Amino acid sequence: MRIAVKLGTSTLTHETGRLNIRRVESISKILSDLKNEGHEIIIISSGAIAMGAG
Predict the structure, then answer these.
(1) CB-side exposure of 37: number of CA atoms within 13 Å?
(2) Rounded distance, CA 38 to CA 2, Å?
C-alpha cells in the first residue's frame, strides 16, 4: 500500500517555532515501522524551512 504523509510546520515544531525533536523521532519510528511492513511511504513537507531553521 502507498501511504502519503503531509508534515507541516506546526507538526514539526513547538509553539515557539523551535524544532520538536521528540515528535520528529516519534513520526520517524512510525513511518519506519510502516516501511518495514512493506508499505511505500511518500512524505510531503511544507515544514522544510522550519526543519532547516531549527
Answers:
(1) 11
(2) 9
Compute the distance between CA of residue 50 and CA of residue 24 in angstroms, rounded to an integer: 12
Residue in 30, 29, 52, 31 with CA at minimum distance from that of residue 42: 31
Residues 6 or more apart from 15 whose CB is under 8 A from it?
none
The SS3 of residue 44 is strand
Q: Is 52 helix (H, G, I), strand (E, B) or coil?
A: helix
Mean pLDDT over 24-34 rounds to 97
Residue range 32-47, pLDDT digits in tens: 999 999 999 999 987 5
Q: Angle at the Cα of 35 (from 29 to 39), degrees rounded to 5? A: 140
